Amino acid sequence: MLEVVLTYFVCIGGFLAVLLAVRQVIAQKRELANFLRSFLLVVSSIVLYGYALLANKVCLEYPILVFMYFTSAFLLGPMYLFTINSLLGIKKSMQKIDILHFLPAIMVFIGEIIFQLQDPAFKLDVLRVFLTAPTQSPLVYLLLAAIASNMAYEFAVIKSIFEFWTNQEIKREVRIIGVRLGASVLSLSLFTAGMLLANPVLILSGGTVHTGIIVSMFITQDYYPQFFFALRKEIRRKYYEHSLLQGLNTDVIRNRLEELMNDEQIYKDMDLNLQSLAGKLSMTQHQLSQFLNEQMKANFRNYVNGYRVREARRLLAHDGKMSISSICYEVGFNSKSTFYTVFKEVTGKTPREIRDEIQIKA
Questions:
Q1: Does residue 48 contact residue 14 with C-beta atoms inside 8 Å?
Q2: What is the distance between the alpha carbons of residues 233 and 86, in angstroms, rounded to a whole number?
Q3: Residue 341: per-residue pLDDT
Q4: Alpha-carbon span 116 to 119, nearest angstrom
Q5: Predicted local distance difference test score (pLDDT) of residue 27
Q6: 307, 267 in Cβ contact below 8 A?
Q7: Which domains does the chain have, with CATH numbers?
Q8: How far apart are CA 91 and CA 88, in angstroms?
Q9: Distance set, CA 104 to CA 142, 149, 210 (Å)
Q10: How many angstroms separate the most distant Cα atoms in the chain?
């Protein structure tokens, strides 16, 4: 009974994927993303129906029904990556080199045509071994290769999305994609286990999770049509900021910045700000901010205060006659409260506690 219910659900997912694919093609504003997404959905539909056919062993009676399943399995990964990158505005057109991603699928497609031209008895024997004793069938290696390929592409998408995980502007969108990616990995894992163990319930469970992803896409498209707009906007902003550093010699900037801090000790200037420091480096404020974030892994405040606290610790250790208040202003802080707050944030202790420890050791 459970297998029947799961089979129906997976088939519904395949049908829904086809409907979504048609909607992409007839959309008023058709872009590369629409066609890629439509192709991805068609491929997903074939894979979902394949789950149902393999789990119920229907292809043992009609081998032709398994045609295009393995090809679609190899297409799923690259199509997903290209679709996501297109929707996010990262990929604006297909290039000739992109064909390399589809070479495995093309080779498998040729192999499937050759297989379907074989004697019916031979095809039935091959499929019977594959479905009843998969570890003894050469087809299992083809299946595992397809799954490994899909996993690799899944993690490639995860890598491109992960850098935005803490971005509060697009927190919801990134989390939704993250859940979908996790569900996709789970679907592949269940399907793999089901095929290796010849367990139809596990196979259909993988298809059920995949169907859940299709349903979430349907809901997102209807109730949140601007889902990818916020993501695309944030990614473009990040690429723009990154492009600000293009053409600049970051090594020269880093060396000059260290000279200003270590040799000239400009951090002691209470009026030092992002604009004045950028001027000393012949950069714009945006370029300096991006440089500090990407190259120094800190914002302007934390970067400068790091030098101030370091100098304060040195003075506390080597100048016992200098008061803490004097040290505060000497290193560049313009208020004692700020000095105490920043000092404890960096060291975990107050200036007084540090001085007392030094005196006890002495």
A1: yes
A2: 13
A3: 92
A4: 8
A5: 66
A6: yes
A7: 2-239 (1.20.1070), 249-361 (1.10.10.60)
A8: 8
A9: 10, 10, 23
A10: 97
Q: What type of residue sits at position 85? A: N
Per-residue pLDDT reduced to its tens digit, 318-329: 877 788 899 999
Distances from the Cα of 31 to the Cα of 83, 89, 175, 231, angstroms: 11, 11, 25, 17
Residues 6+ apart with CB under 8 A from 299: 289, 292, 293
- Residue 296 has what DSSP assignment? S
Q: What is the DSSP-derived secondary structure letter of residue 247?
A: T
Return d(Cα 152, Cα 167) in angstroms, integer: 25
Rounded Cα gap, residues 291 and 53, in angstroms: 55
Residue stretches of the chain with pLDDT short of 70: 27-30, 88-90, 163, 165-169, 221-247, 360-362
3-state secondary structure 109-127: HHHHHHHHCCCHHHHHHHH
Nearest to 15 by CA among 49, 50, 40: 49
Please give the structure tokens belonging to residue 256.
């000059």
Question: Looking at residue 180, what is its pLDDT?
Answer: 83
- Count of helix runs (H) and strand runs (E) in the chain: 16, 0
